[in-house]
Amino acid sequence: MKSTLTKITTRYVETDQMGIIHHSNYLIYMEQARLDWLDHLGFSYRLMEEKKVLLPVYQIDIKYKNPMKFGDQITIKTTLKSLPTTRVEFEYEIVNQDGVICATADLTLVFTNATNFRPMKPLPDFLKACQSLFND
């Protein structure tokens, strides 16, 4: 399960004056998809935060290919790119109900100690779960 699929129906409140989904909402969709990916792996941000681990965004690169509109049924494919180190990297593909690619993205998060805000290695259980994805 290096990849998961998350389905979302776009809402009117997420559109801009042109009736197109505003670009800022893509980040929200990808975050929801990443939370789903973590759930499938058996982890959550809440669990990591309880263990004093934060995951701030280090870098994101989004390519907007085709517009999304109110009421579109989108699917976000979230894929773990490689084994985490102090960083964890995901790639995303967002498609609409017609299979048209609306956006692709690469995202890097940094495992950060919540006490001193220094980079750290991932939790051992998280790393072990991710390693199992690459052993299949």
TrEMBL record:
Record has Transmembrane as a keyword: no
InterPro entries to which the protein is assigned, alphabetical: 4-hydroxybenzoyl-CoA_TE, HotDog_dom_sf, YbgC/YbaW
Positions of transmembrane segments: none
Keywords, in A-Z order: Hydrolase
GO molecular function terms listed in the Swiss-Prot or TrEMBL record: fatty acyl-CoA hydrolase activity
NCBIfam families on file: YbgC/FadM family acyl-CoA thioesterase (TIGR00051)
Family: Belongs to the 4-hydroxybenzoyl-CoA thioesterase family.
Protein name stated in the entry: Thioesterase
Organism: Nonlabens arenilitoris
